[in-house]
Amino acid sequence: MAIDCIKTMPSITTPHHHPKDQDQCKDDGKSFVFDAQVLRHQTNIPQQFVWPDHEKPNINAPELQVPLVDLGDFLSGNPVAAVEASRLVGEACKKHGFFLVVNHGVDKTLIAHAHNYVDTFFKLPLSEKQKAQRKIGESCGYASSFTGRFSSKLPWKETLSFRYKAEESSSKHIEEYFHNRMGEDFAEFGTVYQDYCEAMSTLSLGIMELLGMSLGVSREHFREFFNENDSIMRLNYYPPCQKPDLTLGTGPHCDPTSLTILHQDQVGGLQVFVDNEWRSINPNFDAFVVNIGDTFMALSNGIYRSCLHRAVVNSQTPRKSLAFFLCPKNDKMVTPPHELVDTCNPRIYPDFTWPMLLEFTQKHYRADMKTLEVFTNWLHQRSLS
């Protein structure tokens, strides 16, 4: 049963929101600094980056066979192609939520430029990157691992995240972000990533049409829901690690967002937990990796799955990826369409807005495979108090 949306996020006091192996880092002013240019050469890995034995990576995980969805004919309006593409997407999303898309219409030169600027940014001195430092509790900015947020099981990576708003009035938002945070020399950065995010938003709306068709709701339903999306773009950089068998580039988690469109370089490292084992998704520079997040799992009333995944690192080569996280506009209520709810399929998750779940994952809970479950339980508890 749906509950009324809670407008603010009160403090969480229940103990299960802070698993003991994922403790929040105390704000003592002595947080460890992850300087990739130094640590990439060290053979003695700091303990904060060493993961428990049961979570240590399998570097040679078997390949996961995910469907390759050709969007060319679908985007050109071919109804037969649309049916076939929606079938492939539906099958994948019921099993593990991952699929690849090719002939997606995104300019290859734009993708190459976006990757090149990842290299340019993360090769800057740490002091320069810190001009865009991400503050605790925020979802945007530069993060050198999550050293200011957690004190154990830290990821071996750097990220730069920034907001994308599909509203017409925000057409220069990313360009302004880079100019304000990094200076005039980064104007071209802003232009490239503004164009890239606009392309990702367009692509994601097309994928939402396929998801609507595959679920048996109108083709326009989810497209319209996300038309004015307020999304997050993230640049990921995984430096080499001399002991890659001890650490992880990104720990096991499910994305709390609605849809992730990921472009990998040729290095590889993405792994998905399917049928009780970790499997890799091999790089394909012509394809985007797409996966369902927790918010869309709620929108589908649990029919589609948000699946556990992680990233591993290696000792030789940096790995980089571009991740566009599609999110609904802040005032949109996350509630499934009526076609997906009946007496045989009652509501699984309560109504909520994306900012509520985002704040939950940024300030109160480290995203994992139980994020949506814990968040849902907390909302239910609050509704009864």
| Tally of helical segments | 11
The tally of strands reads 14
β-strand percent reads: 15-25%
- In the CATH hierarchy, the architecture is Sandwich
- The count of domains is 1
- CATH structural class: Mainly Beta
What is Rg? 20 Å
State the separation between the terminal residues, measured CA to CA. 17 Å
Q: What is the molecular shape?
A: globular
Strand order of the largest sheet: 1-2-10-7-12-5-4-3
Annotated CATH topology: Jelly Rolls
Keywords: Iron, Metal-binding, Oxidoreductase
Protein name: Gibberellin 20-oxidase
Cofactor: L-ascorbate
GO molecular function: gibberellin 20-oxidase activity; metal ion binding
Q: What brief labels describe this structure?
A:
385 residues; alpha+beta; Jelly Rolls; eight-stranded mixed sheet; 11 helices; 31% helix; 18% strand; iron; oxidoreductase; Gibberellin 20-oxidase; metal ion binding; IPNS-like_FE2OG_OXY
Characterise this structure:
With 385 residues, the chain is an alpha+beta fold. It has one domain: Jelly Rolls (Sandwich). Helices cover 31% and strands 18% of the residues. It has eleven helices and 14 strands. It has helices at residues 36-39, 72-75, 79-95, 108-122, 126-129, 173-182, 187-215, 221-225, 294-299, 354-364, 371-384; strands at 68-70, 98-102, 141-144, 158-165, 230-238, 250-253, 259-264, 270-274, 277-280, 288-292, 309-311, 319-326, 333-334, 352-353. Strands 1-2-10-7-12-5-4-3 form an eight-stranded mixed sheet. A hairpin with a 2-residue loop joins β8 (270-274) and β9. α3 (79-95) crosses α7 (187-215), α4 (108-122) packs across α7 (187-215) and α6 (173-182) crosses α7. The longest helix is centred in the middle third of the chain and has 29 residues, at 187-215. The radius of gyration is 20 Å and the shape is globular.
